[in-house]
Design a protein that fits this description.
The chain is built from seven helices and eight strands, in the order ααβββββααβββααα. It is an alpha+beta fold. It has two domains: 45 residues, no CATH class; 148 residues, no CATH class. Strands 4-3-2-1-5-6-7-8 form an eight-stranded mixed sheet, with helices on one face. β3 and β4 form a beta hairpin. α1 packs across α7 and α3 runs antiparallel to α4. The longest helix is centred in the N-terminal third of the chain and has 27 residues.
Length: 250
């Protein structure tokens, strides 16, 4: 009887290149999923970022600098309404701030209102320890302070026009927007309203889609028809990739 070694076995020699290719594909897929994670999760995040109302704001501000615009404010009972130009991207767009019981809502309107002078400041500071931002965050009704004082002393804008109300839009966080509306009267702060700290999307749902595109948003959802099947097919490789990660990185 004649025994063939594996090295001299023609069948095994023929399968060797194929198995090598398969091994390379497995390695490439494993490395790809280690670096990219689940495709559907990544696409979901991309959709959420695209729909973020933050994209509608004019955020082109040099760090440490402030953009200022004049608007008007009016109080209707317990509701404070202010309208400002030069805050959203695009000509002629007006931002409406509505504060009630400490909560602030942002929307877009086509016409201004009658009222008294107000200012809005857009800023992109280096950190939350910024003195001016802290003066806004910690402002409370009853404080012996005015909107003018905050602008001229905390923000150091000495030549700012006089105003009864101050709106502040902060873009320090690259994913969210912080917004405040302060109304002062007779030398004291009368009311302070702010966007909710959690999911603020409902409070900004009234801002039109101008920079964002609703058809583009729908098309992005259709892309799930590609990412979900790919994730299903490649799930074994993703599992291998996860198992290959060190415990602290899983």
């Amino acid at each position: 009887m004649i025994y063939l070694s594996s090295a001299n076995n023609p069948r095994r020699r023929a399968l060797a290149p194929v198995s090598g290719i398969i091994l390379r594909i497995l390695v490439i897929l494993t490395l790809a999923f280690v670096s990219s994670n689940c495709l559907t999760m990544i696409h979901t995040k991309a959709i959420k970022d695209y729909a973020n109302a933050r994209r509608e704001f004019d955020t082109e501000i040099v760090k440490g600098h402030v953009g200022m615009a004049k608007g008007v404010v009016r109080q209707d009972g317990s509701t404070v309404v202010a309208v400002f130009p030069q805050t959203l991207q695009g000509p002629g767009r007006l931002l409406r701030l509505e504060g009630k019981d400490g909560a602030l809502r942002l929307s877009e309107v086509s016409a201004s209102i009658e009222g008294t002078p107000a200012l809005i400041l857009r800023q992109n500071v280096c950190c939350m320890e910024d003195a001016a931002l802290r003066a806004v965050i910690f402002a409370q009704p009853g404080d012996v302070k005015t909107a003018d004082a905050i602008v001229r002393e905390a923000f150091q804008i000495k030549d700012a026009p006089s105003a009864n109300a101050l709106g502040v839009i902060d873009f320090t966080n690259v994913y969210t927007v912080s917004a405040y509306l302060i109304l002062s009267e007779n030398g004291t702060i009368k009311s302070v309203s702010a966007l909710p700290p959690g999911d603020y999307d409902p409070a900004m749902s009234g801002i039109d889609w101008n920079v964002r595109s609703r058809p583009g948003y729908v098309l992005m959802h259709l892309w799930y028809g590609v990412t979900v099947p790919l994730d299903i097919v490649t799930s074994p490789f993703q599992l291998v990739a996860i198992l290959l990660l060190p415990p602290g990185a899983r």
